[in-house]
Amino acid sequence: MILPIYLYGHPVIRKVAEDITKDYPELKKLVDDMFETMYKSDGIGIAAPQVGKSIRLFVIDASPVAEDYPEVEGFKRVFINAHITKRSEDEMETNEGCLSLPGINENVSRSTEIEIEYDDLDFVHHKEVIKGYGAIVVQHEYDHLDGKVFIDHIGMLRKRLIKNKLTNIMKGKVNTKYRTVAP
Asked: What CA–CA distance (Å, rounded) separates 132 from 66?
């Protein structure tokens, strides 16, 4: 089932998400719905807060951008109870957008290598080092679990320049091909 995307300004977007247990109700269905919603919205990742759930869960399928970033070919994962434990000092700047901030794209610098601990859908625990563009995508989705969005990483001048767009998003004045929930 395709879920509506919660827009910037909705309280769930800024709330710090909570860990869950393997008996979380209908977890497999939620994950399936998140992937379906992400694909229908042309995203490569989506976090549970973006679909109104304040839990530490996000899904990624970065394969659609593998032509530009070959290292993410086949990079499809479910991250439950994710916690980044290390970030490299080396950073890479990429242009980011977000389903919760439609129509806004900004350059953001993020670590090129992270170490992350998470559970998969079967609650098998993983500790993994992720490099390159995969690390960028994971950090973007991970931010949602901590109540952050990519524009938190841009300067005040850029924020002032997009203020009207942000105001319109918070009022629900957006054109998307997916269903949204305004604040």
From this structure: 12
Would you say residue 179 lies in a domain? no
Look up residue 133 and give its two tokens.
């563009």
Instruction: Please tell me which residue in 67, 73, 128, 141 is annotated as part of the active site.
Output: 141
Whether 115 is catalytic is no
DSSP 2: P
124, part of any domain: yes
- State pTM to two decimals: 0.96
Rounded distance between C-alpha atoms, residue 69 and residue 53, angstroms:
30
- Rounded-to-integer distance, Cα 53 and Cα 38, Å: 15
Longest dimension (CA), the chain: 45
The full DSSP string for 128-177 is: EEEEHHHHHHHHHHHHHHTT--GGGGS-HHHHHHTHHHHHHHHTT----S
Residue 144, domain member (yes or no) = yes
Q: Based on the structure, what is the number of domains in the chain?
A: 1
Q: How far apart are CA 38 and CA 93, in angstroms?
A: 23
Chain segment 107-146, per-residue pLDDT in tens: 999 999 999 999 999 999 999 999 999 999 999 999 999 9
How many angstroms separate the CA atoms of 38 and 48, rounded? 11
